Amino acid sequence: MSNSARVTLGSLLLSTVCTAAYAQASTAADGGVAEVIVTGTRTPKAVDKIPGAVTVVSETEVKRTLTLTEDATAVLARTVPGYSESNQTLNTLGETMRGRTALYLFDGIPQSTPLRDGSRNATFTDMSTVARIEVIGGASASEGIGAAGGIINYISRRATEPGVHYGVTARIGSQFRDDSEVWKIGGNVAIKKDRFDVFLAAAYVDRGITYDAHGRRIGLSASSSLADSRQRNIFLKTGYNFGEGDAQRIEGEASYFKLSSKGNYHYVAGSRALGIPDTAEPGPPTGTGGVSLAGTEFNEFQQYALNYSHDALFGGSLVATAYVARQAMRFPGDNSADRQDPLIAPLGTLVDQSEILSKKYGLRTSYTRRDFLLSGLELRFGVDAVHDNTQQRLALTNRIWVPPLSYTSFGPYAQLSYDVGPVSLTGGLRHEAGHVNVDDYTTTYFRNRVAVKGGKLTYDNDLFNAGAIWRVGGGFSTFASYSEGFTLPNVGIPLRNVNVPGKSVEGLLDLQAVIFKNREIGFSWRGSAGSIGGSYYVSKSDLGSTLSVDPVTKDYILNRRPIRINGIDFTAEYRPTSTVKLNLLYSHVHGVTTAANNITAPLDVTLGTVNISPDKLTASAEWRFAPNGSVILGSTSILGRHINAGQPTEERTHGYTLFDLTANYEFEGVGTFSLGVENLTNRFYFLSSSQVDIFQNYFAGRGRTVTLTFNRNF
Questions:
Q1: Contact criterion met (CB below 8 Å) for 446 and 497
Q2: Which candidate, 230, 237, 231, 229, places its Cα nearest to that of 255?
Q3: Prediction pTM value
Q4: Which of 382, 562, 614, 669 is the most buried (most CB within 10 A)?
Q5: What letters, b where the CB count within 10 A reaches 16 and e where it falls short, cover 288-304?
Q6: How many structural domains are present in the chain?
Q7: How many whole angstroms from its chain centre is CA 654?
Q8: b/e 151-174 (16+ beta carbons within 10 angstroms → b)
């Protein structure tokens, strides 16, 4: 799509709406619109009082996506404006939010590892434990480090109905080809008695290999794939209410998740010149010289949290969360040059697997006082503290690849909001005081065994936000906002790539912090017949962070260049009758940077697919043909794009449109049966991220997949 066509489409969309602090609206029993409450702002708040683009992905939408696929990020790609095309693998490289990396949270606890982002931290729980997903677009400092493109908070389920309730889920999916089956078994029990409640869930998923629409096996990602894997998950949440009026609550949470490869297939290169995609063949993988690369890669996430809340403390409400989390992400076996060491084995024969390990613990606090000093004024303040130790090692030989990065942060913050009739004003400040300690270390043989002097990197930043919302009336509102976000670059890459002596951690320019400044305006309308909304935003960073690929080593290179990103988000829902619902979503993101690491150079290079996905348009039509039955037809279009014509960074990608179908029917006394058909027309296509030559990524997308799900609650 040409730039003029994008501008025209964006203008037409914006001319039909009053843009967006939006969320999926639900209809109240009296035919009006139920208030949508968002908890990702630290305290429950109505969505029309938040100055920004907010998307609440309901449990119903999560379940619908699961009917089609077990991919954890597929639901985001279908429902969240600004979230890019899904890679259909365990690897999320190129999956961004508004052209930048998002911060993934599980019940407010960070799952991301910004210090050494391995693009593997979006798959950390079975989606059956998720009640809803709250997404706040744009740079934000409200949760500390890492929310460059926005915050994606997965809110877990809990027992809410009195008594004892059980749930069982069974799912089988197939492409009707050899070993293409995906099957799942899961169950949960919810108990609520007086002041006590407990929710326990467990699930097991077994995935076979995947095929494209031509019946060819899809190659396995160099980072790891969802195909040919097993997934285990167990989740427990228990709580107790006490005190006068049950104003206090203490709640414990534990989660264990592991997804590991089965090792039944190996990658086989295709041919871009001939249009033959990379594929997979049975048997363990082999590297250069026929060396066996057999080894199990995995994602393993553990999380433990203790929450305390008091809704009547000195006229306000207190929420405090203490947590511990451990994350291990092991990558496939490799005998490439950067894994070799002649002191261990002859060159070319050494096989190793890199592994990112992250251990973190922290405390999150928030105290909210409404009608503070005067009616309509709300004060919220608190302190966040976190300690994160992240490293990357070559696990089979226990060698350091990225030295342990010991990050400690202390972040006090204060936020004011003032409701004056139909107007809400907000503003706040967060002081981010942190440091990263790195001990002396020695690089690998491939990097000349260079001794690097460790050091301490200190960050001390004041991050502001301000916004205003005007609820015009008749369901219309408009907003404007300014926010600042903070993150660290993927520091593990420059640290492991040092190959000349005399370097020190403190002398590496690449390790400076990244500050994002986000401006946004928008409008929305919510009514009994539906909702429409959209926003326009601009995000700037004077010293940004992007990735490119070294043509020799095929390793990623961290670029520190200024970045400017602007975009349009649009969403609409229309309910012409009580049984029909139509949804539409469009997003356009455009980013520019410099041709070299020079902050004074002109911004004349358009960011490509590794950083920003092409425009996206999704639509769905739902027909509830019976009180206990419905059918949904959906479509997802990724538009074509041609950027940087005639330059070394030229990139041309071709678009595609996919259709999907889901049908649900509940048989009284039996359970609910759901049929899902992904890629309904069996369209052959290449993912946009595969159309750009990076490394072992010339993958076609999944062909038609049919899934049958049974769910019984009793």
A1: no
A2: 237
A3: 0.90
A4: 614
A5: eeeeebebebbbbbbbb
A6: 1
A7: 24
A8: bbbbbbbbbeeeeebebebebebb
**CA-to-CA distance for 110 and 364, rounded, in angstroms?**
11
Q: What is the CATH number of the domain that holds 81?
A: 2.40.170.20
- Write out pLDDT tens, residues 137-182: 888 887 878 888 889 999 999 999 999 999 999 999 999 999 999 9
Residue 111 has pLDDT above 60, yes or no: yes
Q: How confident is the model at residue 3 (pLDDT cuts 50, 70, 90)?
A: very low
pLDDT digits (tens, 9 = 90+) for 536-554: 999 998 877 666 666 655 5
Instruction: Please provide the size of the chain in residues.
Output: 714
Instruction: List Cβ neighbours of 110 (8 Å cut-off, separation of 6 or more).
Output: 103, 104, 143, 144, 145, 146, 325, 360, 362, 386
| Cα–Cα dist 654/635, whole Å | 17
Residue 553 has a pLDDT of 54
DSSP β-ladder status, 103-106 and 150-156: parallel
The helix (run of H) or strand (run of E) holding residue 104 is strand 103-106
C-beta separation of 433 from 328 below 8 A? no
**Tokens in use for 72?**
């954890």
Cα gap 120→331, rounded to integer Å = 10
For residues 297 and 191, give the distance between their C-alpha atoms in angstroms, rounded to a whole number: 36
> CB neighbours of 275 closer than 8 A, spacing ≥ 6?
none
| 616 to 25, 35, 170, 305: CA distances (angstroms) | 22, 28, 32, 37
The one-letter code for the residue type at 260 is S
CB under 8 Å to 37, separation ≥6 — which residues? 44, 45, 46, 47
DSSP annotation string for 592-658: EE-SSS-TTS---EE--TTT-PPPEEEEEEEEEEETTEEEEEEEEEE--EEESTTSTT-EEE--EEE
Query: Residue 437 forms beta bridges with which residues?
Result: 406, 456
Q: Which domain holds residue 628?
A: 3-713
CB 500 within 8 A of CB 487: no
